[in-house]
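Exercise 3.2. Students should predict the tertiary structure of the chain below and write it as structure tokens, then compare their answer with the key that follows.

Predict this chain's 3D structure.
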Amino acid sequence: MSDIEQRIQRLEDRAAIEDLAVRYFVATDDDDYDTLESQFTPDAVFKAGNFTGGKDRQSIVAFLREARASMGVTIHTPNYCLVTFEDNDQASGIVGAHLEIAMAGQSLFGAVRYIDKYSRLEGRWQFSKRELKTFHMGPWSDVASSLTSELKVRWPGTPPQTADLPYSK
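Answer key:
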């Protein structure tokens, strides 16, 4: 493969990984569990808070389905996607996003970062690892103080918590 062909392939791979991240958000918002399942490698791992899932993508989808059962409308809005290629079939990335979630009769707003590993299997990029880290989350009424408080994460029905990604100078 010539240099220009390699460079074009890398651009196509980057676009495919960015599309993967957006497809995940759209499928989550639409409760499209078949699409969600197809986004993960068979041995993928997903981490969110105290949950670590893996061994098979079905356990990840079961976790996402259970989490979504307590939510109404969700809007996942990706802000950026940073991709680093390890080789032609492996990459890592960071996806930053804002979330709007209807939950427990409230509208929640937050900012998160996904720490990802990607693998190309059978010509298609998939998540081999996805870890959700929270900057802040809480009811709209708390947004005015959620970034200035020590306890930035405020899920309904749970005590306020520190962020997974605390601010540091």
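Discussion points: The longest helix spans residues 3-29. The beta strands are 40-48, 51-53, 71-85, 90-103, 106-121, 124-139.
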